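Figure 2 data, in text form.
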Amino acid sequence: MNRTGKAAAGLAAGAAALAAGWAATQRRDQRAITADPRGAKLLAEFGGSPSTVRAADGTALWVRTFGPDDAPTIVMVHGWTCAAEFWKLQVEALKGERRIVTFDLRGHGQSERPPDGNYTIE
C-alpha cells in the first residue's frame, strides 16, 4: 500500500474510532440520566408560557415564562451553543417564588437565525 493509501486508511480508522467513542458516550450519558432521580424532569417538556420577542433587527426570539406574574423576575440567558432548556432544573426550583424568563439566543434552540448572519450581542 502506498503512502496515500496508508494515510487514508489511518484516517478512516480514526474516524471509526471517534464515532464508536461518541456512541458509547451517548449511551453512558443516557443511562446516567435514566438512573438519576432528576432524569424524568430533565426529559420532561419544558413548559411555561410561550411567546416570541422580536430583536431590533427583526429576529424572532423564542421565550418561555414561568411562575407568578407579580413575583420578582429573573431572566436566564444561556451560553453559546446552548438553549433555554438547559435551565430546566433551575426553573423548576425557582418558579414557585420567582417569575422566570428564559429565551433562546438568536440562531440557538428555537429562535430564528439573524437575517444578516450577525450573531453579535449588539
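Caption note: The beta strands are 49-54, 60-66, 73-77, 99-103.
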